[in-house]
Design a protein that fits this description.
403 residues, alpha/beta, Fumarate Reductase Iron-sulfur Protein, Chain B, domain 2, Rossmann fold, 4-stranded parallel sheet, 20 helices, 10 strands
Length: 403
Amino acid sequence: MTEKTSFVEGLTKRHLIELDACTRCSECLKWCPVQEVTGNRGISPPEKIRMYRDLINNTEGLKARLFGPRKVNRELLEEFAKAVFECTTCGACGESCEVGIFSQRLWPFLRKKMVDMGLGPLGPQANLPKVIERTGNPYDKPAEERYRPWFPQEVKVAGRAEIGYYAGCTGAYESQAMVRGDVLALGAIGEPFTMLPPEEEVCCGFPLFITGQHDRLEDLTRRLVDAYRIKGVKLLISSCPCCVNIMARDWPLFYGQELPFKIRHITQFVADAIKDGKFHFKEGLKEKLIYHDPCYLSRGVGVTEEPRSVLKSIPGVELIEFDRSGLDSRCCGAGGAARKVFHDNAIAMGRLTIDEAVGKGADRLVLSCPACYSKVNEAMEGYDKQIRIVDIMELIAELISGD
């Protein structure tokens, strides 16, 4: 790093206040999923903040201004970069923070600083911009295969409609039972909805945002927003928490103005349809279900009650809860693109979720996130504890009737 390197530039006033606010009380260590599976205090939330605060003080603090900045130790900087990328960005540390640090937003911007300095992203994360530019998705899969393998032929999609549906990359390519359930539910409700052609429904930008690679975000956002605007969309629905999060929080920033449509998670839309009598169950289900709150749906955009309302409306269901649920839920291990680099951590976290679901006597573990769906299923492969895993909309699709 040169003497002109700034660890402050690009951060907001809130970020800087939060970095200064941490008291190192360590309350967050009780909630951090990475701490739970690694026990490594060197990558804990307060230690990351201490490390970054020291980088600022040593280069731009009072002593640095009076006597000149201290040379930054490259090895320590690389250590910090690894720590911030090993985080799942689940936000549990921020939810428990005694001084209100919004860590789910802080960590991605510290990652961006590392990318700007050439210290990130890590491993396959670095290929994301080129892959998304080439194929429109982070999985390097053909655009023409985005819908074809899973889309139910009996469901009709309107050319133009006030309701739009965005499947998202992980659902379309890795968690297809989930998005198939979405579309079947939308078809059962009966209100016209539209979708973009498969070559136009490109990545929402979240993988680039969360890995600190922001250069293409404005282009992706404008491309998608304008395409839905042209189709007359006033309400855009998605089932992926990460997609919903970036759409609601960041698309207006990258678009440069208020979006021409509202954003909702599909469970919000379905919960309303059930209340309005537009959505009916063909059969009940005499099972104990346990629902896992996705980090970017609960802590990210505050959607916790609607999925439970949908599940409770199924005749015969008994809904049980994890010890940590709602805003306090435990990360399943799939978040923050960390699963692409720190695979063992992700599997260990997924198995903690499985352990508790089995221990509580649930018949099924209900998920509501394509990344969770993919990784928790992977975590159960070859594991001694087994439970049926189902996405919430996959389950609903088994039970509904539009009559």
